[in-house]
Structure prediction request, 318 residues.
Amino acid sequence: MLRRNRFLFILAILVFILSRSASAASEPYPFENSEQEKTYKELLAELRCLVCQNQNLADSNADLAKDLRQQTYKMLVEENATKQEVVNFMVSRYGEFILYKPPVSAHTGLLWLGPLLFLLIGLFGLYRYIQKQQDVKGSNYD
Amino acid sequence: MKKHLIPLSLFAGLIAILAIGLTLNPQKVPSPLIGKSASELDLPRLYSQERFTSSQMLGSPWILNVWASWCTSCKEEHSLLMTFAQNHFIKIIGLNYKDTPQAAKDWLLKMGNPYEMIIEDSQGKAGIDWGVYAVPETFVIDSKGIIRYKISGPLSEDILQQQLNPLLAQLRKEKP
Prediction:
């Protein structure tokens, strides 16, 4: 019984934390349809606030983040812009740094392929190591 | 014996790369606007009924300095900007960012006015078009209206000597 109560208590705290972070910065904006609202929320999650660099536009309470949320809303709802158009607008002004998910291109190649490269180097090292162990074993049995 | 040096040197290399990473300033984001035409400004002026349009600056290089009365690091660079304005012929336009006219005027009265003209961007809309994310910011625009330089954060003597002055000398040479 006690254990169950503790579980419920932790669950309540988690729900509290999650609901708080989700509503950290939400101005009441009316949307024409749910598709628009979904795109708006996606954009706020994917665009970085340049003032608080480890927060996205949705989480940040910085003044600039507020302005950029407003700009995003204006473009989506009043100007009927597509998601890509908003992204292009932001990138042309603030650079690719504003994107949490940088596009795959020649100069971001190392960023995207780097982990794979390290994995391959590691696998190669492991292969060599195992091979050598087998050689040693083999010579013992001679 | 030699074999043990391989992981050690790899580790040392990694430490070196991470150490360099620690010395970089993450607030310094390269601007995508350098080398591009500046976004057109059409804003009210602080001490005049006329409006300012950036096309009226075509023909000679100029400096755009983004500042606000609420911005503490603007105070830091202000005396530098005052001496700079006295010693250079280049026009400095002050973009008063998300401020009120009264607060801006009070501030300039107290601190001195290095600007040729001051324009008001009370909503910060022009700021978004120019990719402003921290105040103060300083742009250098050439005679063709192309942004040649941008710095985010307060100017310093070092920045003036090492970056701004050489660029301004070069712009003078480019002038037809």
